[in-house]
Specification:
The protein is of the alpha/beta class. The protein folds into 2 domains: about 160 residues, Lyase, Ornithine Decarboxylase, Chain A, domain 1, CATH 2.40.37; about 250 residues, Alpha-Beta Barrel (TIM Barrel). About 30% of the residues lie in helices and about 25% in strands. The longest helix has 21 residues. The structure holds ligand LLP. The site of ligand LLP has 21 residues, from helix 10 and helix 11. Ligand LLP binds next to helix 10 and helix 11.
Length: about 450
């Protein structure tokens, strides 16, 4: 092991031996040779470690809690199986995500269905499969859910999602708690929603939910969110004599992707939420409800490393490389283009070599904004070399597209020197299988 990597942005098992990056005891050059690139490598120890750290942080607070992994950050059956074995619940937002939860053996009581535009068929499936809660976003959804469950003998649990009117300090595209955000019931509509649930024989109000945004590093607004939830719970008790059994301030804890950024303190996060909940409940003589948190990014981001092959370079007039062109980009990681997200990278076979002049890494897609890394420090690289991008586990594959008809990458899970292919690389044949020639198409 030579020069260390900035440990907090690489997987727990990342090491460099003879200049070569290893993850989970596997040489990443060998993984790329075996599975091709782009390749997403997930480190099992980091995934399990993050899930255990969440459980431990909340267990230490001594109150009833649940940790639900937010599937939207990354979902495949193998990851969901890890979630199941670690005893976390799962938050899903579509019928197919719900299906993955079932395939992975996650108890349905620990699955919540989220979303602002759930289809009736998805609601019906979630109810039929017995999800722990449908997190209701709006009054129209409530109407449909009440109608759907009207004749049910065992009522479906619901959480009502509030827009707590708290503007999170994060990129505007991932701030979701403002009064004008598209998600959640305005506070003024809460009573109407509660009355609707109380009047619906097939529904049971389990509690309240809010999620103010993602990639949050400060805890003050999460504390404020928790405080709003407790206040509303206390108000509902006074007004309707109902006791909520669950409050959820969502997910959103930030993840650093650069060496100079510090990670948020998970124990402090758990402590702030627990203290705010306890104090609010004591002040209003409320029994302590379950505290449910829904981390996505902070479970999977650091565990994932994206591997790309450098295909070509663009040189400046004086012959210095100013762009490295790679075989992936915005279709497997839209985050730099969409949120100005920044990443860190090394050359996988010369991870400890001295850096050359700053260079940008351009994706292969036909879009000027498809630049994965801007002006980063890397050793002077040649075509054919392998680039490893850290903290690539969250909101990359789950937001992947097939732009330019490029098949989506393969995914492997590494642990103890063993690599397991958990998602095959998409083939061109699979991509084209849904595409019909005009002379094959019939009228219906
Ligand atoms: N709960 C709810 C209701 C959510 O909407 C989300 C994320 C989470 C939990 C998990 O948040 P996390 O812990 O992952 O921050 N595509 C964006 C992030 C969108 C987040 C959507 N909701 C990105 O790449 O930054």
């Amino acid at each position: 092991m030579s020069q260390p990597l900035p440990a907090h942005i690489w997987p727990l098992t990342a090491t460099i031996a003879n200049g070569r990056l290893h993850l989970g005891g596997c040489d990443v050059e060998a993984l790329a040779a075996r599975y091709g690139t782009p390749l997403y490598v997930f480190d099992e120890a980091t995934l399990r470690g993050a899930m255990r750290a969440y459980q431990a942080a909340f267990r230490a607070q001594g109150l009833p809690f649940r940790v639900h992994y937010a599937a939207k950050a990354l979902l495949n059956t193998a990851i969901a199986q890890l979630v199941a074995t670690e005893g976390l619940g799962l938050d899903v937002v579509s019928g197919a995500e719900l299906d993955v939860a079932r395939r992975a053996g996650i108890p349905m009581a620990h699955v919540h269905l989220h979303g602002n535009a759930k289809r009736t068929e998805e609601l019906a499936r979630a109810v039929a499969w017995g999800v722990g809660a449908v997190v209701v976003d709006n009054l129209d959804e409530l109407d449909r859910l009440a109608a759907l469950t009207a004749r049910h003998t065992s009522p479906q649990g619901v959480l009502l999602r509030l827009a707590p009117n708290i503007a999170a300090h994060t990129h505007a595209h991932i701030a979701t708690g403002g009064a004008d955000a598209k998600f959640g019931l305005p506070l003024e509509a809460l009573d109407q929603a509660v009355e609707h649930v109380l009047a619906a024989p097939g529904l049971r109000l389990r509690g309240l939910h809010a999620h103010i945004g993602s990639q949050l590093f400060a805890l003050d607004q999460l504390r404020a969110t928790m405080a709003v939830l407790v206040e509303q719970a206390a108000r509902l008790r006074t007004r309707y004599a109902l006791t909520v059994e669950e409050l959820s301030p969502g997910g959103g804890l930030g993840v650093p992707s650069l060496a100079e950024q510090a990670p948020p303190d998970l124990d402090a996060y758990a402590e702030v939420l627990a203290r705010t909940l306890r104090a609010g409940c004591a002040a209003h003589s409320l029994p302590l409800p379950y505290l449910t948190v829904e981390p996505g990014r902070s479970i999977v981001a650091r565990a994932g490393v994206a591997l790309y092959t450098i295909v070509a370079r663009k040189l400046t007039a004086d012959g210095r490389p100013c762009y490295l062109h790679i075989d992936g980009g915005m279709a497997d990681n839209i985050r730099p283009a969409l949120y100005d997200a920044r990443y860190s990278a090394v050359l996988a076979s010369r991870a400890d070599a001295a850096p050359g002049p700053p260079v940008s890494v351009a994706g292969r897609y036909c879009e000027a904004g498809d630049v994965l890394l801007r002006a980063v420090s890397l050793p002077i690289a040649r075509p054919g070399e392998l680039l490893a991008v850290a903290t690539a586990g969250a909101y990359t594959l789950s937001m992947a597209s097939t732009y330019n008809l490029v098949p989506r990458p393969a995914v492997v899970l590494v642990a103890g020197g063993r690599a397991r292919l958990i998602q095959r690389r998409e083939t061109e044949a699979e991509l084209l299988a849904r595409d019909l020639r005009l002379d094959e198409v019939s009228d219906d």
